[in-house]
Amino acid sequence: AQTVTQSQPEMSVQEAETVTLSCTYDTSESNYYLFWYKQPPSRQMILVIRQEAYKQQNATENRFSVNFQKAAKSFSLKISDSQLGDTAMYFCAFDFGNEKLTFGTGTRLTIIP
Amino acid sequence: DTGVSQDPRHKITKRGQNVTFRCDPISEHNRLYWYRQTLGQGPEFLTYFQNEAQLEKSRLLSDRFSAERPKGSFSTLEIQRTEQGDSAMYLCASSSGAGYTQPQHFGDGTRLSIL
Questions:
Q1: Which secondary-structure segment (H or E) carries B63?
Q2: I need a labelling partner for B21 at 20 to 30 A (CA). Which of A41, B3, B48, B93 fits?
């Protein structure tokens, strides 16, 4: 079975600080795709960053970066210089080669002014 | 690119009634997905289409649920004889392919409340 776990239901951080959201997973697949999505309150899910499992280099998108540890099956998201607009639910999600996304339970992130 | 559009945004209905939701994907996206998200949880996969063909259905999709994409463009999700447990946000997503290079783009969702 393929499982995705986000162990931090809620986090808060001061504006301009750095925060790291954790995600672990379990799969027997060797190649798969990893994503972080952001869901602001009452707004649509937005793709934040993506990573391919066979690429060792960690993906970076502006203030967002990932730490992908394939052997440990860990895929964390780091947000640098956090902004008020980063307040949202964050979901890690995986395409384990079957086209559908498997999501974690989410982390509610609040940026404090 | 006008994004994925879902209608209605909210639906309130009595238990036992039938409801139908519509999703218009990003134009020329050949893949369309339906997910269900309950409070405090991540979205769960329900079904997906490649063009007009329904390729996979989750076991979550009981026989009261049916989805169609008749011309490979918009899709409808119908729930018959609604139950309290059907209360959730129903999300639609579309993509132009699979995997890393063609990520799924989501709509705003339809929130269903069963009285």
A1: none
A2: A41
Nearest residue to A83 via CA among A49, A45, A106, A110 = A110
Residue closest to A108 by CA, chosen among A15, A17, A21, A3:
A21
Kindly report, residue by residue over B6-43, the tens digit of the pLDDT: 999 999 999 999 999 999 999 989 999 999 999 889 99
Residue A30 distance to chain B (closest CA, Å): 14
DSSP character for A59? P
Mark which residues 42-81 of A lie under 8 Å from B by CB: 43-47, 50-52
CB B47 within 8 A of CB B36: no
Asked if A6 and A104 count as a contact pair (C-beta separation under 8 A), the reply is yes
